[in-house]
Amino acid sequence: MLPRMNKAAAITATLLGASPAIGATLDSASAGLAAPDITIGFDEVALSTGDTVTNQFTAFGVTFTPGVTYFENVSARPNFSGAAAIEFLNTAFSIKFSDAVTDMSVAMTANFGSATFTTFLNGSQVESFSSALDLSSNNFYGFTNSLFDEVVVNPAGSTTVALDNLSFNVAPIPVPASLPLLAAGLGGLVYIRARKTKKGCSAT
């Protein structure tokens, strides 16, 4: 993982109009993010099997559109731990983050098929990749060292896609480019005032 300072620099460049930073992908990985800021196991909110999951996890920084279905126990799948979300209709869905993130991983399985994962930042596509889905233990997918606020998952060939243990790192807030200049200006004013005060004391 890149140092936070490098990520902050990438975010600052993006805010100043440069292209969004493109990092690496997690494609059929054996593990998700190490020590993420937030992990959602879908048991943080009291839901019932069959409920549509949309904005119930807003407090944790994520929403789902048009929605996936909550299941209380899908622990039989690799890297799943109890509750999970399932997409039954073989249609695309979005994982939207309240704030921009730099890294994201999710455990995802299907009996067969594939999915395309695409990130967006403020509605503009950042990067994309496609991968086969199955029931193996190498089932973590995601993006690292990038900057995005939405992931669109578009499954194909399978009518049941399950996801669990969604982890992500929230992007650090970059220091505005004008802040060091402002601090320098204020420091100069304080110095000038201090000199004037000292001169006034010397004259008396």
UniProtKB/TrEMBL annotation:
TM stretches of this protein: 173-192
Domain of life: Bacteria
Keyword Signal: yes
InterPro entries membership: VPLPA-CTERM
Keywords, comma-separated and alphabetical: Membrane, Signal, Transmembrane, Transmembrane helix
Signal peptide limits: 1-23
This protein's name: VPLPA-CTERM sorting domain-containing protein
